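User: Some background: our group keeps a shared notebook of sequences we're curious about, and every so often someone picks one and asks for a predicted structure to add to the entry. Today it's my turn. The entry only has the sequence so far, pasted here. Could you supply the structure so I can complete it?
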Amino acid sequence: MSSNRRDFLKMASLTGLGLATTGLVSSCATSAPASNLGQIQKEAGKTHRQVFNMSGYAAPKIDKVRIGYIGLGMRGIGSVKRVGHIEGAEITALCDIRPERIDLSRKEMAAGRPAPATYSGTEDAWKKLCEREDVDLVYIATPWHLHTPMAVYAMEHGKHVAVEVPAAKTIDECWQLVETSERTKKHCMMLENCCYDFFEMLTLNMARQGYFGEIVHGEGAYIHELIDLNFGKTSETDQAYYDMWRLKENGRNGSLYPTHGLGPICQIMDINRGDQMDYLVSMSSNDFTMGPKAKELAAKDSFYKDFAQMNFRGNMNTTTIRTRRGRTIVVQHDVSSIRPYSRIHLVSGTKGIAQKWPTPAKIANSHKWLSADDFKKVQDQYTPPLTQKLGEMAKKIGGHGGMDFLMEWRLIDCLRNGLPLDQDVYDAALWSAIAPLSEWSVANRSNSIDVPDFTGGTWQKNKPVDLTLAGGGTTNVRA
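Assistant: Of course. Here's the predicted structure to add to the notebook entry:
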């Protein structure tokens, strides 16, 4: 970082005011969740001396992967059902603050499977699950502010971790994950399922085989209208967010949920494995919908009175990232505008381009998009081994069209065969860090901020994600 830029960052630092959430249940927000913008600036400038390189690390084989689940809401309970199809995986413990969610999850488990231990009713019940000797992998699907504390505690107690997105909310939490994973030599994989979507995997293999030439630019997004879901009361529908936790998160103004669009692009560009992010700038529009919605609801229902006082993030956030090798990435976030769902998966290189969202997906190696027949030929040629092996089975088992099952099967297969994971703790930290870094940039008139190097410089020699099933592929699937 240049001295001029460092001086500017010191002068421009701001402290965000808001609600600090603690425990498993946070109180009702009257302002934005706590975001210390000065601390973001400080932690972003931290340098890291790597203790142990978790990129490419192959942990000892685990023949039977014993899993403990913390959080059995929308994401957790779906995984419990899917993992029951994977041989070599056993669910040994379940935890949720709501006993009824545990009961429902047990009903979703495959018939004839051993009954898991259960933990519920208190805010720290999850710690007992992490302390069990018959748990190898802790699967965390709780509200965001709990992800890092739970992941760190699990690794400290000798467990590998699979944590939902984002893995961390602050830059300090990102560093906690990295330092704990390196010290304990326990995997910390963020469950970025979109890296396993079929078109994203296709374009990753195409990029790896040189179809696009030198990758120049990538785009990703999370554009998903969630107004009704965010404002829905848990008592009204099981699909609402418990204790309104996700609505409270929308008091932070930045790219709050960047990883769905960002993760696949990072893998295509070999970020953390041959290239690295350098700096970013971020800009948000005003809020045109969430504030008015809160006030509209508060006029009819006093439950929403405190939410009507919140300052919500802008509808659209656009964050632009430059890498050390001179590539650019654009990431967008909007969950409150009336628009069709989109992740804007776009890969642009010196020889070609691929794009999905809107569907159908398109590929070009000239000024015209490939015809349907030529697209099919490319698809047949470049579909990677994982999709070839399990694609149709994954579609039947489900989870966002099958990508959830592909991700979970691959995770279990890697652990059982002692293979490095497709996503490591550096990916979890870096992709999650975009949210707080973007908050700082938005608050500082879209000025640039350096992106930390969580690998401690080893990105220059780390190997790209292995797209083969070499050494693995041995885990069977139950019908």
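Suggested note for the entry: Residues 425-443 form the longest helix (19 residues). Residues 1-34 have pLDDT under 50 and may be disordered.
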